[in-house]
């Protein structure tokens, strides 16, 4: 009875940590495609092919439900997967649904017309591929009107985090926030549209200022998953034990993961 969590590398560990705390009795199989990270600079076809391969690996591990804890994969591959690839007895969910639910304060199943919401000026920080997909803006437009979204492609941040260089990551975050504020000086809210970015959430908040509400995904995804499994308990797959899988060097990835989560994490080869 395992649920799969997929990310291009280590960022999805922020989601995994939150869902494990929220659902302590559910086994999770985590797969990080560190050999091919970062996804944010890849083409849509590359992202699709890598994401489907990783998702199939999680299906093979007994996961009937897979969470794409990677905004780039969710933005560039999920819709195509849902239309053409996912078996009828499996489910694959992305991570910006809960973020938009929180921002617009409406349930995902609410199909009423778009309406005005409290926030008017939203800063979106994401990978280049997520920004170019305009997936956030498209999904937001189905639910809200009158919201100005300014997107900032945060090149280099994922690479620095994956490399364990948090000093460089902080410098890059502050540089990207400065660039965003030149385009949108006074955002009401900021969306951290990459699951690596919660590792730098305090830096984003400090650079943006205390008046800007920062939406990070991990806890929102955890609550959404708990609700989903409560309504669809049959989607907890046949897998019985938790595991950490990587396409990269297990020793190196284990060391970085342990550093990020501040608890011992041991990866094995996918």
Helices and strands, with pairings:
Elements: E1 2-7, H1 13-22, E2 28-32, H2 44-60, E3 63-68, H3 71-76, H4 78-84, E4 91-93, H5 96-104, E5 115-116, E6 121-126, H6 128-133, H7 135-141, E7 144-145, E8 148-153, H8 157-162, H9 166-183, E9 189-192, H10 201-208, E10 213-215, H11 218-231, E11 243-246, H12 250-261, E12 268-269
Parallel strand pairs: 1-2, 1-3, 2-11, 3-4, 5-7, 6-8, 6-9, 9-10, 11-12
Helix pairs in contact: 1-11, 5-11, 9-10
How would you portray this structure in words?
With 270 residues, this protein is α/β, with parallel strands linked by helices. The chain has helices at 13-22, 44-60, 71-76, 78-84, 96-104, 128-133, 135-141, 157-162, 166-183, 201-208, 218-231, 250-261, and strands at 2-7, 28-32, 63-68, 91-93, 115-116, 121-126, 144-145, 148-153, 189-192, 213-215, 243-246, 268-269. It has 2 domains: 2-94 and 218-269, Rossmann fold (3-Layer(aba) Sandwich); 97-215, Rossmann fold (3-Layer(aba) Sandwich). It has 12 helices and 12 strands. The strands form 3 sheets. The chain has a 6-stranded parallel beta sheet, with helices on both faces. Strand 11, helix 12 and strand 12 form a beta-alpha-beta unit. It is globular.
